[in-house]
């Protein structure tokens, strides 16, 4: 029997900082500073704060979480507190000394570490702006504008830190249209901070900061820089609680952008079905991109993440008698300036020999885990009391990591083979830093492709092969370099030319200055070739004995180091 057991720690969103300085986050927003910040005495609404009683037993919630995780539930991060707050019926309008007309409303949700706001209706007319900020003005969201969500309707905004926050709307100078801001719920983030009471916090030490966890930009992640650009964190509101209580909750999971055979950048995200089983509110799904530290070390700063809201469910293969695979489509295209990457996939039922997993444990920054032993097929089986859940026969990949592990919040993360292609998504497991020999289980991409026969529309094939090309595998897609697979491995500049690409026997290298050294790494980050006694600007390397796959090459010249990738056929 395969049972999920994980440690549960009390975390704050994104290793949250009780911030030293102003932090502006980007949820497809314009940025900027709330106008009232120019007049400190007006930071708080003139009408005073509206106090919302959450009436939550936090100790019990944490106890519930410890049980839920052992039962395979997704990571819960907030409890939704129902409200009905209509901009037209509350708040206070005022005119600032510079003649700017603003509306403010302050809300207090006592002892919350952060608040996720969900809206029954959210519409900003052209020229209008909405900011959301905490009590001391150190956490600021916005400006949300007409371009943020032009159609209006249900919406959600990412967390604002602390338990007191203000909405500030700046009236449009070009439109007489009225904004519609109707709040239906406040996501009460109840997991406590690790900083001493009364002090500001640096990022706390949490389970995803353990020594066995690797930030994605450590050396081990060098060969996976494209793949990481497709991995996302998302928050989903569920209308039912896994504990059986009649309340709405917010949960966190990991997913990945995936390519389709049209190579058109359709914003499909692949994840795990168990993240969505309790009636998800897809209109309010919040998806985060680029939430990672820039270097290997843990940092005391917030990351420059981006986010989008709203999705449409597509394919759904259940965990019971299936592979626990879920595909959804974002309502908006991912901006190219965010440098997204639509990861490729391999639908064959071939066990990988080596590879990686990129994930967001405990909704922390991106981490990477590596494996170097061949995957084995397995059947998910979990017993809860008198109920046993079994997946499809041999519908999962079993993996034991060589570096790193996963945790709650990693659910849905992609597992990549040695060629950098997705072959499964995380259902769960037992891996922990204290015992690296315990395994995790990933629902097979192969099964989700066309093996689930209960409903063809729930298979991945109709969406990821819309032109019915019948390919067995597909390389990733970079919208900033869309011309095709061959170009993915060509030079990024004229400083380095590799030929041929892909290569079979010999790889020729042409640099723009004298070559001093060449190192080649496999997708595990292991050195497979190293030489330093070059004297010219060209070189040839025999790679006929290299296993088939993708490699990273680093060429050191008199002036710099240049890194690129190539494929060995």
What secondary-structure arrangement, pairings included, does this model have?
Layout: E1 23-25, E2 49-52, H1 58-70, E3 75-86, E4 92-95, E5 101-109, E6 114-123, E7 129-134, E8 139-144, E9 155-161, E10 164-170, E11 180-189, E12 214-215, H2 225-228, E13 231-238, E14 249-258, E15 268-271, E16 286-289, E17 306-309, E18 311-317, E19 325-330, E20 345-346, E21 355-359, E22 367-371, E23 376-378, E24 381-384, E25 387-390, E26 396-399, E27 414-416, E28 422-429, E29 440-444, H3 445-450, H4 461-464, E30 473-474, H5 485-488, E31 496-499, E32 506-511, E33 515-521, E34 527-531, E35 538-542, E36 549-557, E37 561-568
Parallel strand pairs: 1-8, 2-5
Antiparallel strand pairs: 3-11, 3-14, 4-5, 5-10, 6-9, 6-11, 7-8, 7-10, 12-22, 13-14, 13-16, 14-15, 15-19, 16-17, 18-19, 20-30, 21-22, 21-27, 23-26, 24-25, 26-29, 27-28, 28-29, 31-32, 32-35, 33-34, 33-36, 36-37
Protein traits:
Immunoglobulin-like, 569 residues, single chain, disordered N terminus, eight-stranded antiparallel beta sheet, Jelly Rolls, 37% strand, mainly beta, 3 domains
């Amino acid at each position: 029997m395969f049972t999920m057991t994980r440690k549960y720690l009390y975390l704050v969103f994104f290793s949250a900082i009780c911030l030293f300085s102003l932090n502006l986050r980007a949820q497809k927003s314009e940025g900027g500073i709330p106008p009232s910040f120019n007049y400190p005495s007006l930071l708080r609404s003139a009408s005073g704060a509206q106090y919302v009683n959450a009436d939550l037993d936090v100790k019990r919630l944490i106890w519930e979480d410890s049980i839920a995780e052992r039962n395979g539930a997704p990571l819960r991060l907030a409890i939704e507190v129902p409200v009905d707050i209509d901009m037209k019926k509350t708040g206070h309008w005022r005119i600032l000394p510079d003649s700017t007309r603003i509306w403010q409303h302050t809300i207090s949700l006592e002892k919350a570490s952060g608040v996720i706001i969900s809206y029954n209706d959210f519409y900003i007319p052209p020229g209008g702006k909405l900011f959301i900020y905490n009590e001391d003005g150190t956490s600021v969201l916005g400006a949300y504008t007409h371009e943020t969500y032009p159609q209006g309707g249900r919406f959600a905004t990412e967390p604002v830190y602390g338990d007191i926050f203000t909405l500030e709307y700046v009236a449009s100078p070009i439109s007489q249209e009225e904004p519609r801001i109707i709040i239906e719920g406040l996501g009460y983030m109840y997991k406590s901070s690790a900083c001493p009471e009364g002090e500001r916090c640096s990022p706390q030490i949490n389970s995803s900061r353990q020594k066995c966890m690797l930030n994605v930009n450590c050396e081990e992640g060098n060969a996976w820089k494209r793949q990481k650009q497709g991995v996302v964190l998302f928050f989903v509101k569920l209308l039912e609680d896994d504990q059986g209580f009649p309340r709405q909750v917010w949960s966190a999971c990991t997913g990945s952008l995936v390519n389709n055979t049209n190579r058109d950048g359709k914003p499909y995200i692949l994840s795990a079905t168990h993240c969505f089983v309790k009636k998800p509110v897809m209109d309010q799904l919040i998806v985060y991109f680029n939430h990672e530290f820039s270097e290997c070390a843990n940092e005391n700063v917030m990351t420059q993440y981006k986010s989008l809201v709203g999705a449409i469910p597509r394919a759904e293969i259940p965990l019971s008698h299936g592979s626990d695979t879920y595909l959804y489509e974002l309502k908006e295209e991912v901006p190219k300036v965010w440098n997204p990457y639509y990861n490729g996939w391999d639908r064959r039922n071939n066990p990988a020999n080596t590879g990686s997993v990129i994930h967001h444990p405990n909704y922390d920054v991106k981490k990477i885990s590596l494996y170097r032993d061949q995957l084995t097929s397995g059947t998910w089986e979990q017993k809860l009391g008198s109920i046993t859940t079994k997946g499809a026969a041999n519908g999962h990949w079993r993996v034991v990591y060589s570096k790193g592990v996963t945790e709650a919040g990693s659910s849905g993360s992609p597992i990549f083979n040695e060629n950098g292609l997705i072959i499964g998504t995380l259902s769960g497991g037992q891996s922990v830093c204290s015992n690296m020999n315990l395994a995790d289980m990933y629902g097979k991409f192969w099964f989700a492709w066309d093996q689930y026969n209960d409903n063809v529309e729930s298979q991945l094939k109709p969406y990821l092969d819309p032109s019915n090309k019948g390919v067995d595998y597909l390389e990733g897609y970079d919208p900033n370099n869309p011309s095709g697979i061959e170009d993915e491995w060509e030079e990024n500049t004229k400083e380095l030319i590799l030929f041929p690409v892909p290569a079979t026997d010999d790889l020729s290298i042409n640099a723009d200055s004298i070559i001093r050294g060449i190192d080649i790494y496999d997708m595990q980050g292991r050195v497979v070739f190293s030489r330093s006694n070059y004297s010219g600007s060209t070189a040839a390397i025999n790679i006929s004995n290299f296993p088939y796959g993708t490699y990273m090459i680093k060429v050191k010249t008199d002036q710099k180091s240049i890194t690129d990738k190539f494929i060995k056929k």
